[in-house]
Design brief:
With 340 residues, this protein is mainly α. 62% of the residues lie in helices and 1% in strands. It is built from 14 helices and two strands; from the N terminus they run ααααααααααβαβααα. It has a two-stranded parallel sheet. It starts with a helix and ends with a helix.
Length: 340
């Protein structure tokens, strides 16, 4: 019961943005302090949660929390872009609030969207797309489901960071090269289905971006240019957070093309903060059983485990020499090199 309720940690980010919007002043930095200070301290000083989640006792509770979080994230983004144009905030406070909103969208919203993409019900996948429209990165669904999962831990996967690759080089690979690969794949699919590469329905990327453009237009007409700029800016922040997580999850892990993914194709983490990420840390189990709900994911004894949680490792990744010092010695790639 307590373990199921722990998923309420996911609500702290949207609630902290709400505090900043409501109170102003130093409260606008609450979300940043939570993600950059409090959570990393918990991860570094706290012990890993051994066997922390071997299935939910009351699945209805985590599912209810996920639904509430879905509404909270959308409300947070809407409130931010509505209130930001208000003159009561200083320029610095506005920047902090937009950044806080982007943290919430990228940390909580994207993780929840990812969970929904993997559900079997079409409605869940549509709800996941709604969350990704908040990031201006709706094609992530196509890239993730149809490229990352089949090709994880191979050179064909643009979302797998290679051994020795820096986070900043990975951004180019995943965002631009991965996006280009997805676009070519969708054009080829559309040409097969409709004899036209740019069919607005059969080319799913075009469909998503048409909807995204309509959202931009609606925000501009209803709320003005400042709100639109805030909406796009927080989405860009969310994109970089998403790709930082991608970098962390599979760094330096490779498999042969003719071998199936196994539990060593992902890095796991079992910190308390994992509850705030809907069990994203049980990533190896997710890749082997992608349709398994987040509350049923289990720790795997053969999975590779990061030394700290996602919040800490994301900060470490910003400094490539430090990242390599922490992670390279844990990478199976180093073991293979020594054998040769």
């Amino acid at each position: 019961m307590i373990r199921d309720l722990a998923y309420c940690l996911a609500l702290l980010h949207p609630l902290s943005v709400g505090l900043g919007l409501w109170n102003g002043g130093n409260w606008v930095y609450t979300t940043i302090v939570l993600g950059v200070v409090i959570y990393p301290v918990v991860e570094v000083l706290g012990r890993p949660l051994i066997a922390s989640n071997n299935g939910s006792n009351l699945a209805k509770i985590p599912e209810l929390i996920a639904r509430v979080t879905f509404v909270a994230v959308i409300t947070t983004v809407a409130a931010t872009i509505i209130i930001i144009p208000d003159g009561k905030f200083t320029t610095l406070e506005k920047i902090a609030l937009i950044y806080a909103c982007g943290l919430t969208t990228g940390i909580v919203g994207v993780v929840l969207a990812h969970e929904m993409f993997h559900r079997r019900a079409p409605m869940h996948r549509h709800l996941g797309s709604i969350l990704m429209f908040l990031t201006s990165y709706p094609h992530f669904k196509l890239q993730h489901l149809y490229s990352h999962h089949p090709n994880v831990a191979t050179e064909r996967d643009h979302s797998t960071a290679q051994y020795g690759q820096s986070l900043y080089n990975f951004y180019t690979q995943s965002i631009f090269l991965g996006g280009l690969s997805m676009w070519k794949r969708e054009c080829a699919r559309s040409a097969i289905l409709s004899s036209h590469k740019y069919h607005p329905i059969h080319n799913r990327a075009m469909t998503l971006w048409i909807i995204q453009s309509l959202i931009y237009i609606a925000v501009f007409i209803l709320l003005g240019p400042i709100a639109l700029a805030a909406f796009i800016a927080q989405g860009v922040i969310a994109i970089f957070i998403l790709e930082t997580v991608n970098y962390i999850q599979h760094y330096g892990l490779n498999r042969e093309d003719n071998c199936k993914p196994d539990y060593s194709s992902s890095w796991d983490n079992y910190s308390l903060t994992n509850y705030a990420l809907f069990n994203l840390g049980h990533h190896s189990d997710h890749h082997i059983h992608p349709t398994k709900p987040f509350h049923d994911l289990k720790q795997q004894p053969t999975a590779l485990v990061m030394p700290y949680g996602y919040f800490t490792m994301a900060m470490v990744a910003l400094f490539p020499p430090l990242w390599r010092r922490v992670m390279d010695k844990r990478s199976p790639h180093l073991t293979i090199e020594k054998q040769h």
